Amino acid sequence: MLPNQMVKSLIGKNIRVEMKGDESDLVGRLESVDDYMNIFLSNAVEYRNGEKLRSLGNLVLRGNNVILIQPYEG
Amino acid sequence: MLPNQMVKSLIGKNIRVEMKGDESDLVGRLESVDDYMNIFLSNAVEYRNGEKLRSLGNLVLRGNNVILIQPYEG
Amino acid sequence: MLPNQMVKSLIGKNIRVEMKGDESDLVGRLESVDDYMNIFLSNAVEYRNGEKLRSLGNLVLRGNNVILIQPYEG
Amino acid sequence: MLPNQMVKSLIGKNIRVEMKGDESDLVGRLESVDDYMNIFLSNAVEYRNGEKLRSLGNLVLRGNNVILIQPYEG
Amino acid sequence: MLPNQMVKSLIGKNIRVEMKGDESDLVGRLESVDDYMNIFLSNAVEYRNGEKLRSLGNLVLRGNNVILIQPYEG
Amino acid sequence: MLPNQMVKSLIGKNIRVEMKGDESDLVGRLESVDDYMNIFLSNAVEYRNGEKLRSLGNLVLRGNNVILIQPYEG
């Protein structure tokens, strides 16, 4: 399974995303992802050092600033 | 809805944008966005830690330095 | 008006540019800009926290490291 | 052997990856890699200064934020 | 004159280059430049805060990490 | 000689590479390089401030995070 396919297999599930230039992680439901790894999350929550910082709702993350994506089982 | 479509659905509304290499957020009316997520904002305002820093008026943000885009209901 | 068109509409005028990895702003006359937002400025001046740092004359800025472009009325 | 071929030759083996904007290294089994060096790791573990920080399981790393990839013999 | 043409007009002359992730400037003779603004400098010298740090000779700079290029009259 | 050709002329020789987001330099034998300046080094050694930090053996560096490449005569 290629990296892009692995990410697409997570659509509809909760994922954790680390972004460049951002000390906090984002956790949310993966609504969609495109070939550039641009990401549309719903019910997104910002975490820092494992603690919930704030709820952000719907948001879009720019693919080229994504560092890491993984399934989230919180 | 793909990430780009989600952003385009926000045209004419207020959005919040986090940029790489910039500690402050930008809030403004989304005038237009292209496929690279380059963004044209009007009535843009710079915020830091939730406090208004200054009004910037019209500006263009370079897409590949966008980290996060979301609807803004301030 | 798309973001690129907004920037092109500023040719011949003074603009302010924030660059990634650069704490100072650049202000100068926009001579030309291409589709990657590479920018050719004349009479460029470096500002930090609103204070003039030094005059730089002609310079070229690499588009993918541009964060923000806006009209400058100094 | 071109750089991409060198990385593909590591599929099925453990690799160490340094990511931009991340002070820790990632070690895991290389499941797949595409032409952009997007990477799918299984059994990934985060290391800092040679000490194991935490297990991360499956994850995807964005190719343009990869700094360094090498075989890992731990 | 487009930004790329402005840079090409400096071939054979001394230029100053600011790179991302590098606190020092590079000054050298522009041997060649391509469409990505990859740069080949000869007789390159590293400067920090206007002071000469060390001579580097021939080197190649990666275009997407260039911040600023300008003619150098030292 | 274009920048890419200059780098290719170093295949089989020792080079020094500065990477973005990495305070140390890498020195090693250039095995191969592609059009994106992705680099395959053998016998790579990490240096910081001119002091040898550790031997890394074979590794691949992602081209878009390369800052500077130069011949190394150590």
Word description of this protein:
Six copies of one chain form a homohexamer. Chain A has one domain (3-71): Roll (SH3 type barrels). Chain A is built from one helix and five strands. Chain A is mostly beta strands. Chain A starts with a helix and ends with a strand. The model of chain A has no long low-confidence stretch (mean pLDDT 95). Chain A has one helix at residues 3-8, and strands spanning 14-19, 25-33, 39-48, 51-61, 66-71. Chains in contact: A-B, A-D, B-C, C-E, D-F, E-F. The interface between A and D is medium-sized, with 19 and 22 residues.
- The SSE string of chain A, one letter per element, is HEEEEE
Oligomeric state as shown: homohexamer
- Record field, number of beta strands of chain A: 5
**What percentage of amino acids of chain A are in beta strands?**
over 45%
- Please tally the helical runs of chain A, counting DSSP H or I stretches of 4 or more residues: 1
Q: What are the main properties of this structure?
A:
5-stranded antiparallel β-sheet; about 70 residues; SH3 type barrels; mainly beta; homohexamer
Quick recap:
Chain A is mainly beta and 74 residues long.
Topology record:
The structure is a homohexamer of 74-residue chains.
Chain A: H1 3-8, E1 14-19, E2 25-33, E3 39-48, E4 51-61, E5 66-71
